[in-house]
Amino acid sequence: MTPLLSVAPRRLRWLRFAVVAIVTWLVGSVLFAPWLNPFVTRPSASDVTTHVLLQMSEHEMMFAREDVESFYARHREWPEYLDVSNDNPTMTFDLPTRLVLRGTFTSRYPAESGVAGTRVELRFDPTVKQWHCQATQPAPPPGRLPRGCEPPPAAPWSIVDFLGTLLTGSAVVLAVLAAVTALVLLLGNPEINQLRNQPRKLRRHPVQELVRLDRQLRWRRQRASLLVAAEVAAEDWHEAVDYAAADAHARAQLLALRMSARATASVGWSLPGVVYEWQLPSTLPVALERLLLYVPAPGLPVRDLVRHLRGLPTGQDVMLVVSPDRASDAALNAFASDPANLCACLDQATQTEWLLHPAPQDVLVGLLARQLRVTRISPYQTRGGVTRPSVFFGREQLLARVLNREPGNYLLVGGRQLGKTSLMKAIERRFVDHPHVHCHYLSLRDHRLAARLAAELSLPADTPIEALVAVLADRAGGRRLLLLIDETDLFLRDEARSGYLQLAALRSLSEEGHCHFMLAGFWDLYEAITLDYASPIRNFGEVINLGALEHDACIALATEPLSRLGIAFAEPALVERMVTACGNRANLVAILCQHGLEQLERGERVLGAAHVRAAMASDALNDALAGWARLSPDPQACVLDRVIVYRLAQLRGQGAVAEATLTMSQLLQEFSQAGIAAGAEATRRAFARLQLAYVLKREGDGYDFAVPLFARQFHAGEVDALLQRELESLRAA
């Protein structure tokens, strides 16, 4: 043996053995066992015809047996002949002797089948009333007998027959062993075996190899079982295989379809390939309304691709780059990991996961969280009402009060940033495409309700409110109309001065069934409901006093959006302490989580106690806690508000006296002792106003801060001076 052959790779020797075994099996089966050879036994058109005719012959035999047996039962003798009425039979029958029915196959059978002219005999046993079928000479070929018929009796074996059979059997056994060995070696694919052991890996199999993998799985008849084990829908798998062989436009459209995004071609780019602009759905749990998808031109070297990407102008939109092949994955992922750009790489494995995962939005969010700064896609909305349903938590009972009843009027009162707008937006979303209710949201910028609504409806500013509601009712298409009016305080203040003309019109429209209303506001709405006896809004609808968010909903708000980004708190107790310190105020929880995200380094995925402490001391939180000093348009009322807050902060001593509370009677007594003529009704209103703003809360017989963090904004030594100055202003009034 030469040195070259002696060092031949072992896998080549196995391959050679497999080829030899397959060839041996194919040749040997032709000589000794042709029924085992797929090329010999491949069914032809005549085989199909013969099979159909045999089924017809079986039916004709059945009817012939029934006729003969019926005659025998009536006459107790065997008939001399059998009359079969069939224009084009597949068999003819005669009665050669007693208790014997003989059938001959006609020429309807193809000549190559060897069935035409052959015979079978059916013998009747009258004692048990059963028939026995056996082929007779000339007999049909093997495999061409009707069901239930036995072949003709075999002739006695000679020594030659015995030796021939032994030799044939040995050859068949050897051929089968060789074929089995070859099949095991040939089909023992390590890649498929690994997928069978870990089927979830199928979801991240490189998309470039899906066509080849699909072909191998179909050949082995393992595709269906593997898809079930990997929890992949068959429709998604077929789409992924088609995607692997599709052009750039078809790929981009399928990726967008999986994300429920609206894709339009974006022009004016110097990139080789195509760029699409996606409008992302509001259900996406990140603060990302649109992104750019770039599909590079086929055959573009990865070095040139990265060079083109580096030459892009700095922008604000995230660009998702579709990797063209596995060779480009590493370079594109390295480029996307650079924090200086806003690119993310959709590599080969992630493309497959995008197409096969039951929740593709989670795939996109996870990809962006890994390759971009999380603050760029933070799901937390710290300004204005929450518009994304994925970050709206809680308020289920309040929603049920509105959604699960007949439409009515509602008055939503509460302090700033407590979630009034978020709740109204949630109600509007729930009524989208509702078959019976049409909901319209309107946010007022000033006191002009009719002018604001007219501008939205593209009507003249002086259009009466009744006509505006009539237009909305027409657009509702017969559905009941619910008008959500946000930020109504300035409107109500102006109405109080002008005699409540528009409020009276709203009440009349509601009583006549033309429209129902939900008004949201703070102190002016509260005064119109509870303190102004002449207000038409009194008893106008159900009052909903909006306070803190449910505790469990606050926990979910702090943890679930972060978990979608792959981020978690170091311990559950940390979340509990943070939510409690925020007084279950949703906007404060969102601000702390957002600040925690801003502190995380790239790749860091755990928020610890240090992050939470820093967030609690942040300017963003202090700004959110501010604004309480001017809750009323009346300056004197604001002074009284500040006196109450400073006096409570003084009692608390910045937390030194944890159980200290302030009572109204205590404050009125202190006013009397200081010679301050503050009215009891004005003081009662001040406490109600601070409680409505969620600055104070009832605690036994007194009041305490609703948000424990609120007391931290007062520095030591400042509270006494601030309180003294406000008391002097109150005394001078």
List keywords for this structure.
single chain; alpha/beta; 5-stranded mixed β-sheet; disordered N terminus; elongated; Glycoprotein, Type 4 Pilin; 6 domains; 29 helices; 733 residues
- Please tell me what the overall shape is: elongated
CATH class (first level) name of the largest domain? Alpha Beta
| N-to-C span | 117 Å
The CATH topology of the largest domain is given as Rossmann fold
Proportion in helices: 40-55%
Q: Please, what is the average pLDDT?
A: 84
How do the strands line up in the largest sheet? 1-2-3-4-5
- Which oligomeric form is depicted? single chain
**Class by alpha and beta content:** alpha/beta
Number of strands: 19
State the domain count.
6
Over all CA atoms, what is the radius of gyration?
43 Å
Overall CATH architecture of the largest domain: 3-Layer(aba) Sandwich
Question: How is the biggest beta sheet arranged?
Answer: 5 strands, mixed
- CATH level 4 superfamily of the largest domain: P-loop containing nucleotide triphosphate hydrolases
- List low-pLDDT spans: 1-9
Q: Could you explain the architecture of this structure?
A:
With 733 residues, the protein is an alpha/beta fold. The chain has six domains: 45-150, Glycoprotein, Type 4 Pilin (2-Layer Sandwich), CATH 3.30.700; 190-236, no CATH class; 246-376, no CATH class; 395-545, 3-Layer(aba) Sandwich (Rossmann fold), CATH 3.40.50.300; 551-624, Orthogonal Bundle (Helicase, Ruva Protein, domain 3); 626-732, Arc Repressor Mutant, subunit A, CATH 1.10.10. 48% of the residues lie in helices and 13% in strands. It contains 29 helices and 19 strands. The strands form five sheets. A five-stranded mixed beta sheet has the order 1-2-3-4-5, covered by helices on one side. A five-stranded mixed beta sheet has the order 6-7-8-9-10. It is elongated.
